[in-house]
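Hi support team,

I've been running sequence recovery on a batch of backbones for a student project. Most finish fine, but this one hangs at about 90% for roughly twenty minutes before it completes. I'm not sure whether the input is malformed or the queue is just slow. I've pasted the structure tokens below so you can try to reproduce it. Let me know if you need the job ID as well.

Thanks,
M.K.
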């Protein structure tokens, strides 16, 4: 059975919603034999499932991404620039809490498995995030 991974990274603050970066990573891991879940595709699925014509909100997309991480994935691939993301810090916290492995895009370097992380917010935006270096573990 194929392993399933989900890509996380900045979308809303990026030009063209960072579509190209997500697609490149999705294609890369698909070619390696993974089943890849990509947030833009989740957003399209949400839009198609709505009974009315209201646009899908960022909150709805983040909720769907979190649901997917908790129920479908074996690991998460992190793109650069998560400090620009509204959803990725939340997804990282969930992965850390539930021991879902996180790897760096392309390098496959394990970032942590169940490590404690801290996120600092100021005026509604993420300023920094960090891993507890005493609680890092390799896959």
């Amino acid at each position: 059975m194929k392993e399933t991974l989900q890509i996380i990274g900045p979308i809303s603050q990026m030009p063209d919603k960072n579509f190209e970066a997500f697609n490149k990573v999705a294609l890369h891991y698909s070619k390696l034999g993974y089943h890849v879940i990509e947030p833009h595709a989740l957003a399209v699925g949400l839009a198609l499932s709505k009974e009315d014509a209201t646009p899908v909100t960022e909150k709805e997309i983040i909720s769907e991404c979190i649901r997917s991480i908790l129920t479908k994935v074996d690991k998460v691939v992190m793109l650069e620039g998560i400090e620009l993301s509204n959803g990725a810090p939340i997804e990282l916290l969930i992965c850390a809490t539930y021991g879902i492995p996180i790897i760096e895009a392309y390098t496959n370097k394990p970032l942590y498995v169940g490590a404690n992380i801290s996120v600092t917010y100021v005026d509604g935006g993420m300023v920094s995030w960090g891993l507890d270096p005493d609680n890092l573990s390799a896959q």
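--
Follow-up from support: It reproduced on our side and the slowdown came from queue contention, not your input. Residues 4-135 form a domain with the Rossmann fold fold (CATH 3.40.50). No action needed from you.
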